[in-house]
Amino acid sequence: MSQAHQEGLFQLGTVVGTHGLRGDLKVRPLSEDSTSLAGAREVVLRNTDGSLQSFRPLRATQHKGLWLLRLEGRESIEAAQPLVGCTVLMALRDLPEPAADEFYWHQLQGLKVVDRQLGELGVMTDLLSTAAHDIYVVEGPFGEVLIPAVAQFVLDIDPEAGLVRVDLPEGLVRLNNDV
Questions:
Q1: Closest CA to 115 of 60, 65, 67, 174
Q2: Which of 9, 23, 107, 164 could connect to 89 by a Cys-Cys bridge, CB 3.0–4.6 Å?
Q3: Does the predicted model carry a pTM greater than 0.70?
Q4: Judging by DSSP bridges, how do beta strands 163-166 and 112-115 pair with one another?
Q5: CATH code matching the domain that covers 3-94, chosen among 3.40.50.410, 3.40.50.150, 3.30.830.10, 2.40.30.60
Q6: How is residue 96 annotated by DSSP?
């Protein structure tokens, strides 16, 4: 479990630049379809030294695959520029409940992944978003395994038990360690 999650926070994205003269920050979201920033009452920025600062968002809008975020007290380019490179976090309590068959990334990260035939594949370390579907990145004894996040392969996700059960087609996981 990450330190941010222990603090009741989850990562939304990263500040990758500024936009305009009024202090808008360009935020690259972790998940392309995330809308959490639009309803945020407070955001926390983690600086590269690990320090945390809380801000009230004045504006959060989508723009060319990024979010433009304006923060109270940082309403000029000069005030916003030092925040480039910060990680953008939000309180877990401010998230809406996901649908019954949906999960937030912070609920999946670190879960053990077990295949019906091969057994333990490792733990979920990353999530890749594609136009078709998400892809789970699993690190373990078979190296890096990429699993399409589709019902055909993912049988069950149980965050309470810390487990994801999958049934992968033969050949998806390379068994030959000589490669």
A1: 174
A2: 9
A3: no
A4: parallel
A5: 2.40.30.60
A6: P
